[in-house]
Specification:
277 residues, 2 domains, 11 strands, Helicase, Ruva Protein, domain 3, DNA-binding, alpha+beta, N-terminal domain of MutM-like DNA repair proteins, 7 helices
Length: 277
DNA sequence: CCAGCAGCCTGTGCGC
DNA sequence: TGCGCACAGGCTGCTG
């Protein structure tokens, strides 16, 4: 489910719901979602802490307390809600955190792919999942020079962008949209991109993700922010989920193939597979 | 070291 | 209606 715009909207809606609230009790209903430390320690370390701000690195949420950072990844379908402890617990609820204001923060995840790691503050910088992440897709962090260097590989461009090791935040929907807007075929080898294509691709990545954040993210089936609201960017998708429909630029029918193991949508006419001569 | 791919889970939609 | 299969906003660990 969530790519960067959705995670950022969860961050923005979750932050005011939990910051400055003390953790009274922690209940883990599905232990496998806790990557580290062991569940007992996870609970004991969290109880008594007070949430500070919620921040984000790539698609990871960082729920900070005085001494720890709760690193949360929603993967495909993870979701937060704030409810009364009296509300019945559904079968897809896996973590409960009772707060000092009487509310209960809940983590729900149908596919159980999401993961939590509770780290001491000084361990965060060295945590492998965060350490290997690439640049944030902002004008300041996402350097054109670094991008050009990172593209010197024979990996196809879609796979490279999905890997999060060059620039973070793109998932299967936004990567298809961004490549479409940049006239680049998803199977194009990264090293064959020309200067003007790299410049356009970088600009489109930054703009696309920003616009999607402003529109509340993309809701195809399950995404909701921490207040239960859906996004609206799905109304502006041009290729994702549009197979068989005409390209708005040239009228060719949008095709769907598999790239990097993922369903991939593109226009066979406007998106170039070869570097221009 | 790196690219590629199963595995992790459950639900949904499709063809037969 | 039922069944089997493919597929779904992602990451990780193993393989060659």
């Amino acid at each position: 489910m969530p790519e960067l715009p959705e995670v950022e909207n969860v961050r923005r809606t979750l932050n005011p719901l939990i910051s400055h609230k003390k953790i009274m009790k922690v209940t883990v209903l599905y232990p496998n979602i806790i990557a580290t430390p062991e569940v007992e320690l996870f609970r004991n370390n969290l109880v008594g802490e007070t949430f500070q701000q919620v921040s984000r690195r790539g698609k990871f949420l960082l729920l900070e307390t005085e001494h720890f950072v709760l690193v949360s990844h929603l993967r495909m379908e993870g979701r937060y809600t704030l409810s009364s402890p009296n509300e019945p617990i559904t079968k897809h609820t896996h973590l409960l955190i009772d707060l000092s204001d009487g509310n209960q923060l809940r983590y729900l995840d149908v596919r159980k792919f999401g993961r939590f790691a509770l780290l001491k503050k000084d361990e965060v910088a060295n945590y492998s999942s965060l350490k290997k992440l690439g640049m944030e897709p902002t004008e300041e962090d996402f350097s054109l020079e670094k991008f050009k260097k990172a593209l010197k590989t024979k990996q196809n461009i879609k796979g490279l962008l999905l890997s999060q090791k060059v620039v973070v935040g793109l998932g299967n929907i936004y990567v298809d949209e961004v490549l479409y807007k940049s006239f680049i075929h998803p199977l194009r080898l990264s090293e064959t991109l020309k200067e003007n294509e790299v410049v356009l691709l970088r600009k489109n990545i930054i703009e696309e993700l920003n616009e999607a954040i402003i529109l509340g993210g993309t809701t195809i089936r399950s995404y909701h922010n921490a207040k239960g609201e859906t996004g609206h960017f799905q109304e502006f998708l041009q290729v994702y989920g549009k197979e068989g429909q005409p390209c708005v630029r040239c009228g060719s029918l949008i095709e769907k193939i598999k790239v990097a193991g993922r369903g991939t949508h593109f226009c066979p006419t406007c998106q170039r597979l070869e570097g221009s001569k």
